[in-house]
Amino acid sequence: MSLKNSFAGYALALVLTCATLLSAGTTVFAQADQIPTDEQAISNGKALFEDNCTVCHSVHERVVGPALKQVIEENRSLPWIISFVQNSQKVIQSGDKDAVALYNEFNKTEMPSFAFSPEQITSIVAYIKHETENPPVKEVAEVPEGGTGPAVSGGTGVSSEYLTILLVVLLVVLVLILIVLALIVSVLTGYLKKDQQLEEADREIVESKFDLQKLLTNKAFLGFVVFAFTAIVLKTVIDGLFMVGIQQNYQPKQPIAFSHKIHAGQMEIDCNYCHTGVRKSKSANIPSANICMNCHTEIKKDSPEIQKIYAALENDQPIEWVRIHNLPDLAYFNHSQHVKVGEVECQTCHGPIETMDVVYQYADLTMGWCINCHRETELNTEGNDYYTKLVQLHNEHSKEPMKVVDIGGLECAKCHY
Amino acid sequence: MFLYKRIKVAAFMFSAAVLASCTAGGDNQGTEYAPNMYHSLPYEPLSQITDESAGLWATSNESGVGEYYNSNPNNPHRMTMREPAPNTVSRNSLGFLPYDKVKGDIAWAEENLKNPLPASEEVISNGKELYDRFCQHCHGASGQGDGAVGKVLKGVPSYSKGRVKEVNEGHIFHVITSGYGRMGAHGSQLSQEERWEIVRYVQTLQNQ
Questions:
Q1: Which of A187, A306, A347, B191 is the 20 to 30 A CA-CA neighbour of A66?
Q2: Given an 8 Å threshold on Cβ–Cβ distance, is B162 in contact with A268?
Q3: Are B145 and B197 within one domain?
Q4: Residue B51: domain span
């Protein structure tokens, strides 16, 4: 009986094992149709995705096309994905409801056909699935809000702030020392006053009082005060006179809170990209709104400041920026001559523009300032045959390298005519 | 006598204070010396004063408007800068017709446009210089689409991979001129010659 029982038991076990194996087999086959999860497929898919899809798609965000995590979230079938990627127009024309809905949602933007094998597309989907399930940790260093910050006061850097703090601390320490000294003096005089055996001369000193009236009538003291006062006022007057006509540190509020710090600093956009005339003409040009639109058709569309550009474009009305740098008509200045020919950096005259939220006039733009630079700047004549003989002649007479002044940089008519 | 002295001192201090306020800063432009020299009578494209009473005190003309007013009342928004006259065409020394005026789409450009500049070292190095100034912030220094702006804008392809590796010179030229997808039109910023120079350099990036 026991033997029979055990046999039945074995038979049952065998049948069960077979059944399990069989069912396991079918799941294996079923998964081959499904999205693979092995690392090989995911890395293959990643490479394909980055080379071909990132132009228009991102996994998590809607870019030109939909965010591709939708494919996973909406559980689209692999055959549908494969036929859409291989030829999206064919799927749309066949009247597939989902495809037509997508096509219409994205303003009938056609997705180009990609001649990928089903395996390749499956691996891309594997990568998308992997990314959907493991979303990247959000970067902390987000781009800060653009240009809404208040004006940065002209020319004050971190170092000068530290200097101010240091001065205040020193002042406080000095006042404390003064108080302590005064206390010591009063304690000592109080002690000395009680001393009976003090000499006459010393007693006079101890009992002397501070006489304000006497000091005010003292001629030497009054003379000194008058002299100091006149000197200070005179210096202020002369400084003021020298500042007439100089607009250094002028930092007007602009119609749009455009920040050079974000555009030229963080985003590393070359000055020439917007100031298109800087190498070609006398003036560097303020960009027209269509240049803003090269990026702002997509970036920060909801910002109220960007909306102002949209309004300007819609009304065909130029943005009236406030001019900061303005030379009098008696002086001629040409940007291309300095930037292209002279290879002068923008920052030489305009200062640390890539750190300015609101632009201010950095240089004083006086004639002395121009002349100084013309006296000090050496010429780069390398590869320019025009200057070969001139450099030779110059070197015969002078040990100094050739500078702008040597080719007429101080001639009046260079700038005044 | 004492009062007289006091008045003198007060006047002196007052003038000092006035002069100190001449200094520019913030919205204050500071005092202008010879203001007529800072506001030109002819139209200036980069500074436009629409206020008719501006500089009335310094005016020398008899039209009744201020000396600094320099807007053109006949133009929309009193603009002084105008677009080129309609139906006129600028041509440069190379004899290029403005491409914007050539009607054609990207398929037409791919088929018909040929680069008039040779793939010489000079052209390519000029192209690189222009690329670094006009393209690099989106497309990245080596054309991988990893520029600082490209990361924010998203959807910037690599030149050397996938479909973009295969596009021809006419395609690149057309895209620079008129834009494509998320990329804006850069025809207003670059001359045709400059665009063709960039095309030569971009082709070296495609084949890196």
A1: A306
A2: no
A3: yes
A4: 32-82
